[in-house]
Amino acid sequence: MTPAQKELIGDKLEARLRRVFRPDDGGDIVAWLQANIRQIPFSPMPSGFRVRETPWLAEPLRACADPELRLVQVIAPIQSGKSLMAEMLSCYIIARQPAPTLYLNDTDANAADWMQTRLRVLWENVPPVLAKLQKDETDKKSGTIQTDDMTLWCLGAFNEKNLQRRSIRWLVGDETWLWPKGHMAEATARVTSFGWLGKRIFMSQGSFQGDDTHECWLTTDMRVWSFACVECGMKQPFKWEQVKIPEDAVGKDGEWDFQAVRAKTTYECECCKHRYADTRTNRDIMNERGSYVPTNPNADKTQVGYQWNALCARSWGGQAEMYIRAKTMLDGNGDSKPIQIWKQKQMADFWTDAPDAFDGAAAIGEYKMGDDWETEARIDPATKKVHSDKVREKQIRTRFMTVDVQRQGFFCLVRSWAEGGDSRLVRWRYVQTWEDVADLAKATDVIPAFVYVDCGDQFDDVIRQCGINKWTALRGDQRYDFVWRVQTSQGMKNVAKVYAPARLVNVGTGAVRVHHYSNLALKDQLSRLRRSGKHSCSIDSGQDYFDQMESEVRTKNMAGKPEWKRIGKRANHLWDCEVMQFVPAMAFGLLAQPVLAAVTPAETDLKQEKDSEKKE
User: Could you tell me if 574 and 526 are in contact, meaning their C-beta atoms sit under 8 angstroms apart?
Assistant: First the structure.
């Protein structure tokens, strides 16, 4: 190599280093974005970026550009601009602060989709960014771009290999609540090589108390979007407790008039009690007087956090309707999933189902065991459909017997069910032989198909007796959900339920149906229904029954996972019998299934394979 060639290479290297490390040429990031992002093609209403429409984005964006800050975390509701903030930041990085950059979504597939349908599409509409990209760059389908000044990767956080080997100045993570435990820390290690220049920006909806996203949030100064009341001037955050649902929106029959909820819901100042009507104009006025208020002033000054919720952006009446419907599911059948989704995705809050949220108060009804119950439902043996028509002949009572098998005998419990999830205790008894179990079922008018026996202990004997008597076997499982293939209008679909499809076990007397069920999910649901009063017991249930129903407490294991744990050596057999009642109640539609996410075969197979490995 000639001296001239070496000098040319040296000049190019020096020029590149100067571009990478030169100070920013000044100017406000928000002003730059408004001047250069004239079109957001994937927006429902395509237009340029206007911060007045989402004023809560201004301060977090400026924090991202602030060289004094090392960590910026955003906790926000869905569809409120947090992902757009990350996308606009990528334009600023490429055009004004080029340096090695890693953008992380949850999975590689979602990262690839984000790159192709959002990031690249936006870059093509921002001239200063497009000028930096190589001519053929926008045609590539990889998750990597290379400019003269930098490399940007867009990858999945689930793949641990994506979090290794690279030295990163800009680390941007979206929806961190979906990331595996420990992967936020793995990603954080990538910015250490850049020292004080390294910057982490994490964004997420509300997650779970105690997870990585929540623990990261606790290290920030936890700034909350707040407004100053137009009447009294008091600065206050947007709080759900201040949303006032009209009292006349619920009738004497307990049915909600959601049109009235949407039309009449207001927001009340927590100081002067001024009521704001549910209008876009009022929200705009409140947001114009908005700013962030730190709630953790003792945090490291280089770590800032920003949180806002849907009340600053969306109709309060619409939020009230969502809350009421979710609360109805919780009170009606103990299903907490809808209210969890609302709290995380709309209120941008951290969900917890800690033990103190599940008190064991028993609902004692004004009846005795064996009393007739006018509300008890019936099942048509021809159609297997539940109904309340007492006039039809030869209909089957909706009462099930569940049996907990012991070494010296059996705890048997019979419960009657009504449409809508209400239930009554019919009988419980400890018996000593299999014949006694069969006799008790006959005495309480429970048909053989409605007898469910726990096969977790003495499996072979239980299965043999189930085959002889035409009973069904049940088995508790540590898994939270199980995959089902169901027919929909769009074809076959994978859905998750809290009990598994029947597995047939062949014995000499015929095939026996065996269902696995989620211990955690059904015990949670039982606890909630007891608290709501829908799952009741009789006034003569006896002290043994009450003691056994207070035999377990919800806690967390060493890995931080929730579980129900037996208290000392308390007997818990009737508690287990009550839990098993939920399987047939759900199967016949007497009790709604908890709302679980749809799953793919690959996800479910992998999950159940890992669970099986743990058991072995």
Answer: no
Question: Do the bridges between strand 151-156 and strand 101-105 make them parallel or antiparallel, or are there none, so unpaired?
Answer: parallel
CA distance 454 to 462: 8
3-state helix, strand, coil in the chain (%, to 5): 40, 25, 40
pLDDT tens-digit map of 4-53: 776 777 776 666 655 555 555 558 999 999 999 988 887 766 788 999 99
| CB neighbourhood size of 501 (10 A) | 12
Q: For the chain, what's the residue count?
A: 616
CA–CA gap between residue 403 and residue 576 (Å, rounded): 9
Model-level pTM?
Answer: 0.70
Pairing mode, if any, of strands 170-174 and 101-105?
Answer: parallel
Q: What token pair was written down for 198?
A: 């390294």
Q: What are phi and psi of 307, to 5 degrees?
A: -135, 135
Instruction: Decide: helix, strand or coil at residue 302.
Output: coil
Q: What 3-state class would DSSP assign to 174? A: strand
Cβ-proximal residues to 407 (8 Å cutoff; 6+ apart), any chain: 458
| Residue 596 φ then ψ, to 5° | -120, 155
Among 374, 523, 403, 541, which residue's Cα sits nearest to residue 472?
A: 403
Q: pLDDT tens, 42-96?
A: 776 678 899 999 999 999 999 999 999 999 999 999 989 999 999 999 999 999 9
User: Which pair of tokens denotes residue 59?
Assistant: 């301060």
CA angle 473, 518, 360 (to 5 degrees): 105
pLDDT surpassing 70 at residue 598: no
Kindly give the residue spans of alpha helices, DSSP state H, lying in 167-249: 183-188, 212-218
Q: Point out which residues pair with 510 in neighbouring strands.
A: 507
Q: What is the pLDDT of residues 253-295, one digit of tens each?
A: 778 999 999 999 999 999 999 999 999 999 999 999 999 999 9
Q: 310-313: which pairs have CB atoms within 8 A and are 24 or more residues apart?
A: 310/77, 310/80, 310/346, 310/347, 310/348, 311/238, 311/239, 311/240, 311/243, 311/267, 312/56, 312/225, 312/227, 312/238, 312/283, 312/286, 312/287, 313/54, 313/77, 313/80, 313/283
> Could you tell me which CATH class the domain 363-484+497-598 is placed in?
alpha beta
Q: What would you report as the CA-atom Rg of the chain, rounded to the nearest whole angstrom?
A: 30
**475, 456 in Cβ contact below 8 A?**
yes
Q: What is the CATH number of domain 24-218?
A: 3.40.50.300
Per-residue pLDDT at 315 exceeds 90: yes
Query: Pairing mode, if any, of strands 235-237 and 243-244?
Result: unpaired
- DSSP state for residue 462 in the 8-state scheme: H
Where are the alpha helices (H) located in 171-235, listed in sequence order? 183-188, 212-218
Would you list the domain boundaries of the chain?
Answer: 24-218, 223-345, 363-484+497-598
CA dist 268 and 81 (Å) reads 26
Q: Which residues of 534-569 are buried (b: 16+ CB within 10 A; e: fewer)?
A: bbbbbeebeeebeebbebbebeeeeeeebebeeeee
Q: How far is CA 121 from the centre of its chain?
A: 30
- Helix/strand number for the chain, H first, E second: 20, 29
Extract the tokens encoding 32. 């730059």
SS3 assignment, position 601: helix
